[in-house]
Amino acid sequence: MKVIQGSKKLETAMALTICGGYLDAYTYFVRGGVFANAQTGNIIKLGIQLVNGSFESSIRYLVPVIAFVCGVILSMAIDRWMGKRKINMIRRTVLLVEVLVLIAVGLIPAKEEYNLIANTMVSFVCAMQMETFTKFENQVIATTVSTGNLRKAAEFVFKAVTEKNREDMKIAFMYILIIALFVFGVVFGTWTSDLFGIRSVWIAAALLVIGIVIITRKTEYIPETAV
Question: For position 135, what pLDDT does the model report?
Answer without folding.
Answer: 87
